[in-house]
Amino acid sequence: MPVRDFEAMCSAMVLTQTTEKLALELEINGSDLIKNVNTGGSGLRLGGLTAADVRAFNSVLTSDHPEEEVLGTRPGKVASRDATLQTGAPIRWHFDDEDHYVHDSHTLTYDFPVPFVRTFSDDGRSEWVNILVPGLGRCQAQRSNLVFKDPVEVEDNPAGLISLTLHFMADEMASLNESILPLLFETIGPSLKSLTLNGPQGTIRQALDDNAIIRCCPNLLKLTLKRAFIHVQLDFTEYRANDTPIPELTFAWLDVAAFAKDLSDPSNPLARFAQRLRVSLNAFVVPPIEEEDDGEWDFPLHVNALVRMLEVNQRLEYFEVKSPRFNCLEDIMKFHRKPIYRQHKSLPIKCKTAFLSVVTSQRTVELKKRKAAEAHYVPVIPALDEHVTANIFSFAAFPVLRRAHYDSKKAIHFHHHH
Questions:
Q1: Percent of the chain with pLDDT over 90
Q2: Are 245 and 138 part of one and the same domain?
């Protein structure tokens, strides 16, 4: 996508009222990095990224006036303001690579007023004013054609980047310095709530430290790690709610059986965090040590490890196996729709009220049809004090049912590991 089109699209997305999630696949060179900034959610493919590129990127994210950083314009003497561009007003839209207006280009006009125009780098006296037009991006308009809504300064710096996906390409990671990513996450990490790191583990072992990145993201709730054979999503919500530090994590990316063993250990923090898991059991996804005499790798070893994990792990909500073999289908699918120890939504008020009506029904009743003067009704549920009842309600929730899937298609191709 050309930079100009990206700029125009993002200027429109700022005003959309219906789009909740925007996904873009962008291959960004270092020189273009600061021109492609989306402060809501973003996906970046990192190539020959340098420390200077990251510092420039960070300066945009932390600036009170990021449009001035991106476009290289001087800070304005007049605060940025929102305005409506009058009907038929000429709009300068064509700028060269140095961000100078191309004077022999034609202007745009609309037969209706254009609302939500934002001024920037305004010296307060020039005839033509720098503006951001939704759907066009950086433009200029005559000051006399702008009807300003409010003279007070608008907030230019939003909450920051809350969702990010990074793709690590195998042929590009060799040039990525190991200090680059920590430098990047020092700035964007504090605002992130969701992060996806997509890349082959074997080529980025030295450049990517998952635990260091987690430490740079104190508000991170969801972390998705995608490697060649294993995709796992980690949920830190409970730890964040209790303000508990995330412990150090280890990942056996190249050994499915070892990874499953870690998820089977309740004392392993990985078993507590793992919410979704996808593994590939294609015949060539195997460490060389596990090859048998006939050249076939020990398929049952990995299947049995996964089955044992599903038997004891009570936190994994979604599990998927990719393999062309069907001889473990039944073993895996028997865990589909099995309840696990997770809760998302508490019981509704109606259910809680019904429970209270039973608990509080202990009373002495008269039995008119019997000769006894009175009898005591003993409820099935004994009397509970407020503390016990509050604890019951804190844990009461609809059960979460695990989803298990088996994919026999060879949709992903892997390489031998020697």
A1: 32
A2: no
pLDDT tens-digit series, residues 348-382 = 677 767 766 666 554 444 444 444 544 555 555 55
Instruction: For residues 383 and 287, state if they share a domain.
Output: no
Question: What CA–CA distance (Å, rounded) separates 384 from 379?
Answer: 12
- Structural domain includes residue 9: no
Angle at 55 between CA 49 and CA 59, to 5 degrees: 135
Q: Which whole number is the average pLDDT over 396-414?
A: 69
| 241 contacts 219 by C-beta, under 8 angstroms | no
pLDDT digits (tens, 9 = 90+) for 186-224: 888 999 999 999 876 554 455 568 898 999 999 999 999
pLDDT of res. 313: 93
Q: 75 CB contacts (<8 Å, ≥6 apart)? A: 65, 68, 121
Cβ-contact 177, 53 below 8 angstroms: no
CB 99 within 8 A of CB 88: no
